[in-house]
């Protein structure tokens, strides 16, 4: 009898927990698709350049269009999630992402490519903010770091698929067929999310968009919040440029191998990312008083690892060495995000966590969007000036171009040191 009584007491809680995980799964799958979209250019570079008769500048445009779309929607994303709730925002996001993917697959020219990727990015931009809001609403505060880390892992699953598996699929079926398939997967997940996500809390109906904007403006008066944005922007732009745009072409160039084979170090990077998110996500819950120092140390370590990928060093030590470095970079990159999200949770109120996440990703998108064309042109110019790899092909990127990439990434890492210093006083006060 007592056992039956216990069942009666605990079953409703269990059902609520199960529903929370189902809802989380639907949004996590959407984030995996969004992450795949973000880092996919590196796996389609060769086919894309052949189809549109373009060079590194065209690839940079492809990457830049996504970053700009992502950026344009970030502040609206935070306001919309905090005002209208997770479910409505996520469903709209999935529709935009799926339709944009299909349009990208069917695009006849670069202008249409830019527009399609912009639509994809505008949809994808809403997902992580909504996922973070869902975690804050559905799970206890002492589990926030862990669950936000696991949420990030869902993105890295998409990142893993975007490396060797996507490169192999592109080789077999072409990049257009692959993105049509991605659009179909997105529509299936849309149906799942519509069922799994529960209606948003009644409290959202009592909020006005104007009230959320005023509260957000007050939060942004603090320099510490901008320090948090600088930290994340530096991390995002550096890691996404290396792992999502130029990683596979760089490794393929270093060792004269196919993009499919060159995807192995990037696959290791994504696996490292997943492990770093889980273990350092757990550590972030325990290291609340040392977040600033942890972020500075992890940024310095990331810079060291990036410098270890200079062409001369990479070629000297070989493919296995490069794979190990990318794995270590993945661990470091994966561990950075839960630390930053823990800072967001401390710097913003629970009601404004969507705005806080959006401020960070807006800064990241602007930084990455501005950087991509500069990086592309700098790599091309350095290769042409050196003359060693561009004798027969003016669009080729050589050792000098990839050395320029590494140098720019190191410069882009510096805000990741300054940002935690700006956050220090407010983090200690809380």
UniProtKB/TrEMBL annotation:
Subcellular localization(s) per the UniProt record: Cell membrane
GO CC aspect terms: plasma membrane
Record-annotated membrane-spanning stretches: 21-39, 59-81, 88-107, 113-132, 153-173, 179-197, 236-255, 261-282, 294-313, 319-341, 353-382, 402-423
Major subcellular location class: membrane
Coiled-coil ranges per UniProt: none
Pfam families: MFS_1
Sequence ranges assigned to domain Major facilitator superfamily (MFS) profile in this UniProt record: 23-418
Membrane topology term: Multi-pass membrane protein
This protein's UniProt keywords: Cell membrane, Membrane, Transmembrane, Transmembrane helix
The keyword Membrane appears for this protein: yes
InterPro entries (UniProt xref): MFS, MFS_dom, MFS_Efflux_Transporters, MFS_trans_sf
Keyword Transcription regulation recorded: no
GO function terms (MF aspect): transmembrane transporter activity
Designated name of the protein: Glucarate transporter
